[in-house]
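Subject: sequence -> structure tokens, single chain

Hey, anyone have a minute? Need the predicted structure for the following. Not urgent.
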Amino acid sequence: MHGAFADSSSWNDVVAPLKQAGYPVAAANPLRGLHQDAASVRSVLDSIDGPIVLAGRSSGGSVISEAAADHPQVKALVYIAAFQPDKGDSSAELAGKFPGSTLGPTLNPVPFRQADGSTGTDLYIKRKAFHSQFAADVPRRTTDLMATTQRPITDAALNDTATEAAWKTIPSRALTTTQDLTIPIAAQRLMADRAGSHTREVKASHAVTVSQPQAVARLNKQADHTTR
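Reply:
Had a minute. Here:
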């Protein structure tokens, strides 16, 4: 079984134990827009020979829901503190369904010019707010580095609406994070319940792949085992 990850933050601490357990891993997500990202991840899926467990954290959940639709090799989906949109949903809309997200005021929007000449907006978390907003359960020396090396996501990626919902036909698991200030826990529970995902809840920030990588790796292994 292969593992493929779509995400907007570090999976390094998760990838290491999975590779040690013998799982080949592929990682890719451009963070340019939902449909563009899904097409990119889909091309990675098409290049893999064998069954796939596809995992996504944060907005990566929206990407895997789109990319995996009707893909014959994707046998399980794993959502890690992630969006699980239905058709017509956007990540921004889902995050705002319940109180608890404090992300908006911490964002630093940076305009950029796209290849066609139009202007897009990259969103960074302000460095001073990064630790408290994104990863309060991670040592500050680590979050200082994460803040410096963070990859921005475009405003479009959060506001694009989903056209597919792969969780309707592919079994899924969800790791929900009770201390999350980016996707409120109430929204995560709603999405996981709606998708019928096997759910594990942990006391963690949005950066659970960094603060509790073994829990994330374990959930991916369980997803694999249930498909065999």
